[in-house]
Amino acid sequence: MTKKVAVITLVFIMALSVPAWAQTHSEAYKDNIYTTGELKPVDSVLKVKVGDRAPDFMLPSIAGQKVTLSQYRGKKNVVLSFVPAAWTPVCSDQWPGYNIVKDLFDKNDAVLLGITVDNIPTLYAWTNQMGKLWFPVLSDFYPHGKVAETYGVLRSDGTTERALFVIDKKGMIRYIDVHDINKRPPLESLVRELEKLK
Amino acid sequence: MKKILVLMMVTAVVLTGSLVAAQTAQPKVGDKLFDFTLPVPADRADRTYLGLSGWGKTFKMADIKANLVLIEILSMYCPFCQKEAPLVNQLYEAIEKDPATKGKIKIIGIGAGNSSYETEVFRKRYNVPFPVFPDPDYDIHKKCGEVRTPFFIAVRLNPDGTQEVGYAKLGGFGEIPAFLEMLKKSAGL
Question: What's the mean per-residue pLDDT of chain B?
Fold first, then answer.
């Protein structure tokens, strides 16, 4: 009896102390951000690992270009930033941060490619709220999430993980962060990895 | 046993309710500001600006030497905050230039969900002259009702140690002269 009470008490205390899902979003998006609530942190299995050659791809950008990964081979380090979906809370406040640190990418001879599974018009409207982005925004919309699937970051609901891949000039994967989808990866972790490429 | 269970259920509901209320209340004019502490800045210029004395590692609003403190809840990742940053700097300059407000109205930023690295990136990128404190786990952000950013809160620091919110609003503050006049009035200057 006493044991039972103790267990129940413990469960209650644990339930009450679970941290609330934290997020913020910029007033730049007004009321247009869809509330997703807390999601399963990771919902896919990676198909690549550090040391692998990064699978090549060609995707359309919102600027109307076709961007391939291999076009940077021998020239630039590449950061792929998959974000789950346009008009959702954490994603909307991730790329605008990268947008003010072009110098940190330049310093490490790196480019950034932002990728989601949304179509071009949606990506265009959404990223317009972020100000002018210096990096290409690519649409992995059709065939749906093909690149995300190749890397193993396509979730079971058709969105992607919040994932960062750092690929060196030889086209080799040097860092992977499949982050808890509910949280934004801290900038310093990415910068630290970029600095290791030198 | 049943009684204990029922009692616990009621307690849980009440506690959860009060927690939610505590986390969702946005500051309003006339409110007493929610309680929070900040780390004493490592930078001497920041400490001097805030008028912090002593050897403590943390401080509270009441420790700031000012009649009124304008708090900006921001994020390095927020495009609106990025756009607003030069205007907030101009407001800072206007305050510092006016002998009636210099040393009496001070500004601090709180980077909701930002690490200290990220708040420093924001300060450097926009040459922010006032201290910006990281709030990596959204602790302060939750206390002020998870507001969108930027959110400005002007807090009057009364001589008796009490504090009162004189302004609390989402988004840009508009024209600087009018806003500064309002702050002056709120500060009793």
Answer: 89
Tell me the pairing of strands A173-179 and A110-116.
Answer: unpaired
Region A165-194 average pLDDT: 97
Question: What CATH number is attached to the domain comprising A192?
Answer: 3.40.30.10
pLDDT at B25: 83
User: End-to-end CA distance of chain A, in Å?
Assistant: 63
pLDDT, tens digit, 9 for 90 and up, residues B14-52: 444 444 444 458 999 999 988 899 999 999 999 999 999
Q: Please, what sign has the CA dihedral across residues A127, A128, A132, A135?
A: positive
Residues of A contacting chain B (CB within 8 angstroms): 1, 4-5, 8-9, 12, 15-16, 19-20, 22-28, 93-94, 96-97, 99-101, 129-131, 184, 186-188, 191
Interface test with B, best of A26, A90, A128, A192 (most B CBs within 10 A): A26
Per-residue pLDDT reduced to its tens digit, B115-130: 999 999 999 999 999 9
**CA B15 – CA A198 distance, rounded (Å):** 53
A57 found inside a domain:
yes
Q: What burial class does residue B14 get, using C-beta atoms within 10 Å of its C-beta: 0-12 exposed, 13-18 middle, 19+ buried?
A: exposed
Which positions in chain A touch B113 (Cβ < 8 Å)? 22-24, 93, 184
Mutate which of B14, B77, B132, B141 to test chain A, going by most A C-beta atoms within 10 A?
Answer: B77
pLDDT at position A6 is 56
Which superfamily is assigned to B27-187 in CATH?
Glutaredoxin (3.40.30.10)
What is the tens place of the pLDDT at every residue in A2-14?
555 555 554 444 4
> Residue B94's pLDDT band (boundaries 50, 70, 90)?
very high
Q: Among A33, A79, A86, A91, which one carries the catalytic annotation?
A: A91
Spatial CA neighbour of B74 closest among B154, B170, B167, B165:
B170
Domain definitions of chain B by residue range: 27-187
pTM of the model: 0.86
Q: Which residue segment(s) compose the domain that A119 sits in?
A: 41-196
